[in-house]
Amino acid sequence: MADYKIRQEYSTFSNQDMLSYSFNIYNEGSRLSISVCCGSHGTHVAGILAAYHPDNSGVNGIAPGAQIVSVKIGSAVLLL
Question: Which residue range or ranges hold the Peptidase S8/S53 domain (predicted)?
Answer without folding.
Answer: 12-74
